[in-house]
Amino acid sequence: MSDLFWLTDEQMERLRPFFPKSHGKPRVDDRRVLSGIVFVNRNGLRWRDAPGAYGPHKTLYNRWKRWGEAGVFTRSMEGLAAVGTEPETVMIDATYLKAHRTASSLRVKRGILAA
Q: Locate the Insertion element IS402-like domain: which residues (predicted)?
């Protein structure tokens, strides 16, 4: 069984309206690239450490950089959050939050945390 992350057909269809139009040369497979971007960000990897199944790491980085600067990811998250009923609160899954290894020791050193 593979530990790689792949967007489903349903997820791709929900995201597709937010993709910019392709001009000229067709883009590399959106599912492969976006799945790779999610995998790298979710696991805190460097771009060059992305598994080869997602394609060249430079392609992943370039798409992430271009679409990030163009606001594609922001618009897609806002659009997905607005689908259906308008929630008053949007919950964010904090499962993948990471703290620096020295964060806990800083409180002890400064005397903030009593033993």
A: 7-75
d(CA 22, CA 37): 19
- Which residue, among 61, 84, 79, has the nearest Cα to 19 in the 3D structure? 79
Task: For 47-64, write each residue's pLDDT tens digit.
Answer: 999 999 999 999 999 999
Give the pLDDT confidence score for residue 104 in this predicted structure.
63
3-state secondary structure the chain: CCCCCCCCHHHHHHHHHHCCCCCCCCCCCHHHHHHHHHHHHHHCCCHHHCCHHHCCHHHHHHHHHHHHHCCHHHHHHHHHHHCCCCCCCCCCCCCCCCCCCCHHHHHHHCCCCCC
Closest by Cα among 94, 90, 81, 13 to 34: 13
pTM above 0.70, yes or no: no
